[in-house]
Design brief:
By secondary structure, the chain is of the alpha/beta class. It contains 22 helices and 16 strands. 35% of the residues lie in helices and 18% in strands.
């Protein structure tokens, strides 16, 4: 390229420099002056072919034509940093954070109750039990009892499994005092992300200590852990969302059916029902306790924070179950905490927690939101906090366990001086993982088997006109009608770099390559980012195509630099859809290009993932005259048949998309 440019400069210099025009006053060798306005005729020598005067009389400006860009030149241009490594992360943080609802202002407990009932109903009806999950909501309790572990000091362990939803059985252990009389408190101990699940040592010690105090204790397995550890992951729950059902429903039923088991016990006191757990168990604790009013005491340990906090503290973002589709349309975790105001809550966090939900940033927003509501109920003393400093890491160790025992003593055994608030040493009673196994059916359900069953009859048959179908599709993806503004930030020659401002939310990096005489414009996107598309750009330039290579949200330079997919599932929790944002960005660039260059554009997409957003953009705008898909996804059902989760394809986990449209149906709606 440089050699060609030097030759071009030399040629121009030989002709007297850049941009000569016929009306530029110049001295000629045989004529004293050459001025177009002069009426005097020029001599024959001056107007002979190839003469300087002849060139001047031709009128158009002369512009050098540098050598064509090489693939290396194009690669270098495509590799230029346009928005930098931090902007994509900051923009998605702001986007998510600003969509989280604030706590309402209420002046009485009665006014709050109306709000709390509304939050609870909306979450259960519109988040947990939406779509096909509604039929799982009120199924009868089914329990199958197995062997018991006897000869323990004052208690037994009864093995059981209960059906959370039809065909999905949950293994569990019931710790039962030997000498039960009358009604006693019941406790459900839930665990977090521990592969040993219900056999985790600390969880066993908690169960043993509580049963030795006369309580009935249930230790259920958590989905994806323990006996489920090698069968499913939490991110597969979003397959159900894609089908228009609810991935959060099995998690909720895992807990609510566990409470059913406890409260079916003849000695269970329905007024004294506790739930406690660490990490993912802490999330389970706040979720079930806020939504199921049968729970009267909750002790979440390092298990959650506000969605606003999560947006800023990446390690708090949480798995798919913590950020279910559309939860924040109705409530934040601040609201869920305040919804315990008519009951009792001990919020425990750790001072130096490197996993998540460190006390310093997680606790203050929760207390700020919930304390005034507890005060309205004259129950401020029933909202307590504990910060563990020793060891201060992610734990439900002896210090945190003893805080639980004390809180239970104060709430369930007030004034009982005999109640033991200290840990009862029980390490010798801990059982091995194998000793606690509960046999399960070989065809026990999982997220994937449920989704495979749901997708068989999807998408549903189309009804209505094409216009009505387009409207329905764009509503499902929460389509954005963005406008693009181009800000030139660099480039050289035929290459120009732009930051495209997309609406008020996003900045998209793009590079425009302009050939000498463009006969069309191609928008170029790729799963692997624009920097990998040099060969494609070179071929398009050779075909005299102007090329706009850019990176939509979540790809290329627009990829979030840390915990990327977790920000996307939070985006879905606040009621937005990543696929709709991508489609909106592509649409905005297509509209800009059509207006800027006065002609419709071609959209070329490389890779399966962006091929979905590309198809959607063609539905959104007429500016895209044609679309070319290289290695595209053929069906959304591939997500399920390949058993992919939100950690693999977060933007494609759009709630209800496959329920109504597969890719063929989307293609048929091209404007």
């Amino acid at each position: 390229m440089k050699a060609g440019l030097i030759l071009g400069i030399a040629a121009v210099a030989a002709l007297g420099g850049w941009g000569w025009k016929a009306n530029h006053a110049t001295q000629a060798s045989c004529c004293a002056s050459l001025q177009p306005q002069s009426a005097e005729p020029l001599c024959e020598l001056c107007v002979s072919p190839g003469s300087r005067a002849s060139l001047l009389m031709a009128q158009p400006a002369f512009i050098a034509n540098p050598a064509p860009l090489t693939e290396a030149d194009i690669t270098a241009a495509l590799s230029e940093k346009i928005i930098g490594p931090d902007l994509a992360l900051e923009e998605v943080r702001v986007f998510n954070e600003t969509r989280v609802p604030e706590m309402p202002r209420v002046r009485s407990a009665a006014e709050w109750k109306i709000k709390a009932d509304e939050y609870r109903k909306n979450i259960l009806d519109k988040v947990v039990f939406r779509g096909a999950a509604a039929k799982w909501r009120n199924t009868a309790l089914k329990v199958e009892w197995g062997d018991s572990i006897e000869n323990l000091p004052g208690y037994r362990i009864r093995k059981l499994k209960f059906e959370a939803l039809p065909g999905w059985w949950i293994p569990a252990l019931l710790y039962e005092p030997l000498n039960l009389k009358g009604k006693v408190p019941v406790v459900m101990n839930v665990n977090g992300h521990a592969r040993t699940g219900k056999a985790t040592d600390g969880k066993q010690l908690r169960c043993i200590n509580l049963v030795k105090r006369g309580m009935i204790v249930l230790n259920p397995e958590w989905i994806g852990m323990g006996q489920f550890a090698n069968r499913m992951g939490h991110y597969q729950m979003n397959q159900l969302d894609l089908c228009g059902s609810s991935g959060i429903a099995p998690f909720y039923l895992n807990m609510s059916k566990g409470l059913d088991v406890l409260l079916a016990h003849p000695n269970a006191d329905p007024k004294q029902v506790a739930v406690a757990g660490l990490s993912g168990g802490g999330w389970q604790t706040i979720f079930i306790s806020s939504l199921d009013e049968r729970v009267t005491l909750a002790n979440p340990v390092a298990g959650y924070s506000s969605f606003k906090t999560r947006a800023r503290h990446g390690k708090d973002l949480g798995d798919s179950e913590q950020t279910p589709n559309d939860l924040a349309l109705y409530a934040d975790y601040t609201h869920l905490t305040a919804m315990l105001a008519n009951r009792a809550a001990l919020l425990t966090n750790n001072a130096y927690d490197k996993c998540c939900f460190t006390a310093g940033h997680a606790l203050p927003p929760l207390i700020e939101a919930a304390a005034p509501i507890f005060a309205l109920h004259d129950r401020r003393d029933f909202l307590r906090t504990h910060i563990n400093f020793k060891p201060g890491t992610h734990n439900f160790g002896i210090d945190n366990r003893q805080q639980l025992y004390c809180f239970i003593g104060d709430v369930f055994y007030p004034g009982d001086k005999k109640f033991n608030r200290n840990e009862i040493p029980s390490e010798k009673e801990i059982k091995t993982y194998d000793e606690l196994i509960v046999p399960l059916p070989k065809d026990n359900h999982s997220f994937n088997t449920l989704a495979l069953g749901l997708m068989k009859n999807l998408p549903k048959p189309q009804t209505g006109s094409k216009t009505e179908q387009r409207t329905k599709l764009l509503k499902i993806i929460h389509a954005k009608n963005y406008k693009a503004k181009a800000k030139e930030i660099g480039g050289e020659g035929s290459v120009t770099h732009y930051q495209f401002q997309i609406g008020n939310d996003w900045t998209v990096p793009g590079t425009v390559f302009t050939p000498d005489e463009p006969n069309g414009t191609t928008l170029l996107i790729a799963d692997t980012g624009r920097k990998t598309q040099a060969a494609r750009v070179k071929r398009l330039l050779a075909e005299s195509q102007r090329v706009i290579a850019f990176d939509p949200f979540f790809f290329g330079e627009s990829k979030i630099k840390s915990r990327d997919f977790l920000h996307v599932i939070l985006m879905h929790a606040v009621g937005e859809r990543a696929i709709g944002i991508q489609s909106g960005q592509i649409t905005a660039l297509a509209n800009w290009a059509k207006k800027e260059f006065s002609a419709p554009v071609t959209l070329h997409s490389t890779g399966p993932r962006l091929s979905v957003a590309a198809r959607l953009a063609v539905v959104q705008t007429k500016a895209i005259a044609s679309i070319e898909l290289e290695n595209p996804m053929k069906s959304l059902k591939e997500v399920i048949t390949a058993n992919r989760g939100a950690n693999h394809l977060p933007e494609l986990m759009c709630h209800g998309l496959l329920e109504h449209f597969d890719l063929k149906q989307i293609e048929a709606l091209k404007k």
